[in-house]
Amino acid sequence: MEILALILVVLLPTGDHFFMERDYFNAITEYKRALFRGDADSSIILRKIALSYLEQQKYDYSMKYYSEYLYNYDAEVSRLYAVALIRSGLYDDAIYLLSGAEDLCGLELIAIAHGFAGRYDSSFAILDSLNIAHPDYVDDEKALLFSRILPGFGLVFIGEVPLFLGTLAITGACGYLTYRYVRRGLYFEALTTGFPLFQRFYRGGLSNMKLKYRIYYENTLKRILSELESSLIEREEARLFDF
Fold first, then answer.
1. Which among 64, 141, 169, 219 is placed 20 to 30 Å from 135, CA to CA?
2. Which of 204, 141, 146, 143 is nearest to 171 (CA)?
3. What is the span of the domain harbouring residue 12?
4. How far apart are CA 31 and CA 224, in angstroms?
5. pLDDT of residue 6 exceeding 50
6. What is the CATH number of the domain that holds 57?
7. Tens of pLDDT, residues 90-106
8. In Å, how far from its chain's centre is CA 162?
């Protein structure tokens, strides 16, 4: 029986085999079995499980296994853990995890976390110190003020000129319709049709401007995060496997 068990262990695919085949589901299954049996270094197995979940973009599960590993602090692993936290929207947790980081990767992740949390001034200050290109920071409160005065004008600061013109045209048309109703003495129509339309597009323009600003900044942050994530995964694979 012992010989048969040994043969089965040798012949059956291992977690590493499934991982190299990019079959992360079965890789995780085999790693968990190895963890349960206690026939391998548990810290390595935890990292392999966490990495497999990261490859599947199951960041909540990945966080769980990275947090179990980090009783034995490892700077490289903490960066992967931070990626999972940021991807899960836990920006302040990622910043806390990386507090005191002085390496390029750690600082970039802190900047990204601040950015996704809406603290663009803090985010871009860090990126500037690292000489990393990013969109010019525009005070969105100032842009919002301009858009309140002239519908959509704040969009000009981020290059959305056609959208500004469209917002201005539609809002202006609704304002003109309201004005025409009033001029003709159709006050009921002005209150029930013209003004509600004007108000709807006016407020919609302000909301759309806020959304465009967030997308404008976050597209850059997402690109930087994706590049970092790929680099960190590649380095972790090199540490854990022979490829």
1. 169
2. 204
3. 1-73
4. 31
5. no
6. 1.25.40
7. 999 999 999 888 899 99
8. 27
